[in-house]
Design brief:
Order of helices and strands: HEHHEHEHEHEH
Helix content: 40-55%
Strand order of the largest sheet: 2-1-3-4-5
Strand content: 15-25%
Shape: globular
Structural class: alpha/beta
Largest sheet: 5 strands, parallel
């Protein structure tokens, strides 16, 4: 089995590159090689940070889409290649394209059981109305921004095992 197939796959759909970087920093620290010098300076100034407990190292493959349409296409391609995503983080607001709810409608047509975490700092939609629209769909969770590392890692552990 190839390394690509064995890794758990996550898709982040958000119009902000900074959010994609945040998710990489939270979930895939091996991609932060350039941060080592900064981490050493931080340790010198503030001491060694306590380890994050309760979370094993995650063997993840992360992918990014800047708009809902791009995210939908990536989900289609992943399924067609036999390497579907195990979890998607989806922003509510992504101008000028589809918003998160419209994107979710399309995602549910092609990947009805894909766990989705809707993320936003805004309350554009009532969570009750969202649950009414998607009552029998795959797992659906709301996460308020700014997100915390423990929240994100807990969701990943819950949905990806």
């Amino acid at each position: 089995m190839s390394e690509r197939v064995s890794k758990k796959r996550i898709l982040v759909i958000d119009d902000s590159e900074a959010i994609h970087q945040d998710f990489r920093r939270l979930l895939a620290p091996e991609h932060n090689e350039g941060r080592k010098a900064l981490d050493l300076m931080e340790e010198a100034l503030f001491g060694v940070a306590p380890p994050v407990e309760g979370f094993p190292a995650l063997d993840l493959e992360m992918d990014s889409a800047m708009q809902g349409q791009e995210g939908l296409e990536k989900v289609r391609q992943a399924q067609a290649s036999g390497q579907p995503y195990g979890l998607a983080f989806l922003d509510y607001r992504m101008p000028p394209g589809w918003n998160g709810i419209e994107t979710l409608r399309h995602l549910r047509k092609v990947a009805p059981t894909l766990p989705v975490v809707l993320c936003s700092a805004y309350s554009d939609y009532s969570w009750e109305k969202i649950r009414e629209e998607f009552p029998d769909s795959g797992p659906l969770v709301e996460l308020k921004k700014p997100v915390r590392r423990d929240q994100v890692r807990e969701l990943v552990s819950t949905f990806l095992g």
